[in-house]
Amino acid sequence: MPKKRRKLNKDFEKKIYTSKKNVELVLAKIYDIDDEDIQKEYMSAFNDVVYSYDQLTKDYELTGFNDNSDKLIADYKKAFSLFESEFEI
User: Fold this and answer.
1) How would you label 9-24 residue by residue, b for 16+ Cβ within 10 Å and e otherwise?
2) Domain that holds residue 80
């Protein structure tokens, strides 16, 4: 049985790319924090965002754009917004 092709979506790929850049920027800012305790606190809080981003990209790489994609991007945005509201960076 042939492997099913994954469905691609250019607009969704742009959202993933933007999400990747946002995650990289915040991680760079966290790594620039000199105080190790504060850095650990920020990393711990940001782990939810990184986890959401990882889920989003893995799902898209494996299955492409699907019914779950909008939920995953919404979960990522919610986690990122929550982090931004609780931590100033």
Assistant:
1) eeebeebbeebeebbe
2) 10-86
Kindly state whether residue 4 falls inside one of the protein's structural domains. Answer: no
pTM of the full predicted structure? 0.89
**Alpha-carbon gap, residue 35 to 67, rounded angstroms:** 42
When divided into structural domains, the chain yields a total of 1
Residues 49, 82: Cα–Cα separation, whole Å: 9
Helices (H), the chain: 10-31, 36-63, 69-86
Please write the tens of the pLDDT for every residue from 38-86: 999 999 999 999 999 999 999 999 999 999 999 999 999 999 999 999 9
Strand pairing partners for 64? 7
pLDDT value for 21:
98
